[in-house]
Task: inverse folding
């Protein structure tokens, strides 16, 4: 891709986008606060495999599903990229209109981050700053490439922890244009269409219904850890375990 950038850039928190050396369990280290997890350590620990242009070789399953839905809707891989957050300067440019950020714990309010907080407190160890996963979210959203082109970019947040942005009321403070909640395949591409056409969009979008199974596409970018989706939602009033991952459930 030329310096013009991709129209739609999908990425995520640095810790979330890493395969953490092939183990999803090791990824829980992202709950460690920044006074222990320095940037130089994190960069070596949370490695991301991507090509020279910044396209990742593997992605969080939910983000891969978003890409697949956009491709099924008519966009091409010249329009959409799942990008390495370390290489955003290679993919964002004058042509970029949307930066979609997948979040697992953007403000450090998840159960895992809370448990580690109390473990350190009970061990009488200092806890300073944010869990690294939250710090990595701020590093992405405040990336110089995004700031440089902010006047023509809409930032769209989605993922299992979009609720953190809504419930804390920090959407405006963080400069987030849209928080998307719910399954993506039906309503999400239409939202992106409107943004691409410079039409007005609400600052919060909640998917209006579960997506029919015939609208669920096969992912194109392989998932981190070889994760697959078995099912989603509810059946006969009982919760069903699935991969935890639609952009936006």
Result:
């Amino acid at each position: 891709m030329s310096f013009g950038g991709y129209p739609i850039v999908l990425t995520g928190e640095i810790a979330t986008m890493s395969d953490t050396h092939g183990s999803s369990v090791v990824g829980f280290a992202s709950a460690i606060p920044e006074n222990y997890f320095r940037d130089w350590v994190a960069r070596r620990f949370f490695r991301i495999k991507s090509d020279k242009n910044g396209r990742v070789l593997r992605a969080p399953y939910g983000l891969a599903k978003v890409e697949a839905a956009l491709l099924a809707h008519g966009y091409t891989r010249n329009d959409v990229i799942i990008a390495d957050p370390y290489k955003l300067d290679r993919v964002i440019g004058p042509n970029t209109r949307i930066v979609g950020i997948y979040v697992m714990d953007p403000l450090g309010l998840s159960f895992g981050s809370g448990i580690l907080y109390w473990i350190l407190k009970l061990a009488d160890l200092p806890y300073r700053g944010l869990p690294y996963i939250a710090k990595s979210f701020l590093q992405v959203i405040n990336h110089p490439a995004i700031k440089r082109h902010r006047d023509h970019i809409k930032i769209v947040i989605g993922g299992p922890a979009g609720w953190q942005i809504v419930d804390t009321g920090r959407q405006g403070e963080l400069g987030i244009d849209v928080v998307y909640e719910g399954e993506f395949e039906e309503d999400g591409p239409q939202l992106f269409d409107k943004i691409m056409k410079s039409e007005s969009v609400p600052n919060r979008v909640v998917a209006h219904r579960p997506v029919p199974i015939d609208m669920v596409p096969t992912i194109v970018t392989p998932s981190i850890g070889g994760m697959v989706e078995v099912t989603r939602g509810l059946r006969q009033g009982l919760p069903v375990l699935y991969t935890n991952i639609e952009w936006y459930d």
User: Anything to note?
Assistant: The CA atoms of residues 2 and 91 lie 9 Å apart. DSSP finds nine helices and eight strands in the chain.
